[in-house]
Structures
1.
Amino acid sequence: MTLKAILFDFNGIIINDESIHQQLVTEILLEENIRTDEGEYRETCLGKSDRFCFRDIFALHGRFVQKNYLNQLIEAKNRAYRERLAELETLPIYPGVEPFLEKILQQGLLMGVVTGALRSEVELVLDRAEITPYFNTIVAGDEVQESKPEPQGYLLAVERLYRQNTYLQIRPGDCLAIEDSYPGIEAAKRAGMQVVGVANTYPFHMIQRRADWSVDYLSDLELERVEQVFAQI
């Protein structure tokens, strides 16, 4: 087996913005007379799309939200997120991301983003950080019916890469996923991929229990060693 593509999660891997998302979700829920603590947010929302985050928190508090109203909540959060980023002089992109992307590019590997974030948010950040050209595909949360830990996003990314590069015959097993959350790791594994867990959100020892490889920082990942392991599978 040969490593042919690397698929990145977005929030918690490329941009360190989880605190922004948590604050915005908390503010919107307060307007709905729902109070959440950090534990509930981490358990219900980390690694998942806004749609499933809001839906599940409402359900935990014994409330059902109609689809149209849920869409309004998502749109309101999206507007607030874009406004919050516009206030920042520098985006909180994780250190070492661009050099790592450049290294992957030099290795001749394809790259993609698989995330629960909205496409408009992803494109905004990638464009502003000037790293959009590195990615061959983006699968965002508003393009799939299911959120992580379901594997749908990862499988769609493989399908797109396959269509773009039919000569490579890319399969899920030829891809490496890079994740920071439990739902993300589970989604990639259920899609049939090897997973690198980066300890940006959870402690290293907790990520290590779930991922195939674990690193403290993205820059710690030894790409050559990963490729050697893939070649032996």
Note: The chain has two domains: 5-16+92-232, 18-86.
2.
Amino acid sequence: MALKDLFESRGRFVTETYLQDLINRKARAYFRELETLEKLPTYPGLEDLIFKLQGLQCKLAVVSGALTAEIEVVLDRLNIRNLFSVIVAGDDITTSKPEPDGYLLGIERLKTAFPELNLQPQDCLAIEDTIAGLTAAKRAGISVVGIANTYPFHMMQRWANWAIDYFTDLELDRIQEQFDKASPDNAPT
């Protein structure tokens, strides 16, 4: 759990009860803040990319350290919840990124939802904006695009299979080409 790790890295050890109370307080504050926003801020090109990927029949999943309720409220507010087949949230796993557990659970859930795909990690593509996220995806055997939202492009370039500055820079034909090479029988997921 990232919050617990943060405390421990600072020499503080907290009880599970205290940690859960902090998580609940953070979630309540987050929901209150969301309620004040008429329109949620998103990264330029994100929603357009999601619709394009959906148009290509890609199976979309969210793998995040946020709580399920937090993810769902954002996806609902953006009117894109129905485009995601799977959500793996912080409350679904016991370890956080850079551990691969979230991605591995996401693959398992996609396999369950779409057994006909015979999905393997190399059939997937992650889009990440943190070093921990890039590391988690790679440890799970997933190719990863680094987007320079949180860290500069040159850092994303060092850690990712390829890097982009903006979602609008992600070329769909490059994604298709990568998966045609990796697994000619499977479509990208």
Note: The chain has two domains: 1-38, 42-182.
3.
Amino acid sequence: MKKTLGILGGMGPLATADLFHKITVLTKAASDQEHIHVLIDSDPSIPDRTDALLHGGQDPLPKMTASLRNLERAGAECIVMPCNTAHGFLQALQARTSLPILNMPALTAARCRELYGDRQACILATSGTLETGIYHRALQEQGVPVLTPAKYEEEILMHLIYDVVKASKPLQPEKETWQHLLDSLRAVGAEYFLLACTELPILAEGLAVPGPFVDPTAELARAAILFCGYEIREQVPV
């Protein structure tokens, strides 16, 4: 039986659009009518998750819950959140609904094990995601070796995420910065990169610097397609 998908979005808006795009292109469908019924509540006023986790900023849970209620009332049967840092609040949010909320870090960690086995993953993420350890725990459960950026590299990531992608700034001026960051991490043992912030797949695609990369947004899209009773398209249209 086909299910209706709810996207709890706005964290940020471009990441929400990226997930919806990936769901659409990855769904095996020959017509409009063969696609998933998707409900999107994109509320960009949800307080910043990293600020809440690290600096005692405004709690995002009330507004996340309000979006969740909107999706429930509209008929969603499954919830996805295109924000990795928001998964630091997943347990509390799941306790507020009977609807399943797909776990992006767990799905991605399983994919890392499938694709790369014992090779060392490097987590590229916001300070909030790194601090919560949600990806460390998910990868460790899969037996995947983990490398994390040094503090100064973490600051570069925060700049790229907040000052560039979230700020809708041009990506190309940051290509050298991105290349240097990846090269530095390879030099200390990174064998592939986990784009564990939903703004980073947008950056990586826009700058076209070789990885290899694992994209949690794409993994969430694939899991949502299957959960809703649809098939994944193997050959993605250009």
Note: The two ends are 29 Å apart (CA to CA).
4.
Amino acid sequence: MKKYNLKPEYIRRIRPNMAYKRIEENVQPNLVKRQFKTKSLNQIWCTDITYLIWGNKRAYLSTIIDLYDRHVVAYVISKRNDIELVIDTLNKALEIEKDVYGLIVHSDQGFQYTSNEYKAICASKGISISMSRKGTPIDDSPMESWHGILKKETLYNNNITSLEHYIQLVEEWIAFYNSTRLKNRNLN
């Protein structure tokens, strides 16, 4: 088919979705540089998105943790992985923590974190944006590790019957994690 320049009719051209394109000029340098210890609350927050998959259904969990004591500052679960998910999570965190001037928010270089909306909210609150290098998840290892623990203690240890049941388990586990579960606290 290639030799005669023939294309099957059932294949349609896929156009790139420009709404979910990373804005290169909004990529920020890595300010954290794998220094994940802080001396007090609200110095460095880490954020990322992970999939919550059950069967052929999926939801997205956007989380912000404080690197001082690794508690979850805010999280949002959505059926869509879009800019609104990250903005909602950031706004929820900013409602809880008012004194954030000088804070660093560290993330990967996902399209949500390079969006103009995310950049504008951070700039308006005096928040510095830090991003891990492209394709280097170790630069965001506290968040990656947290997602691994979450999935190990929820997904793999329970008889989940539906995506809604899984989401409920995740919400209960986050409440348990913030209040009861022992964690490696960074208290000096």
Note: The first helix runs from residue 83 to 96.
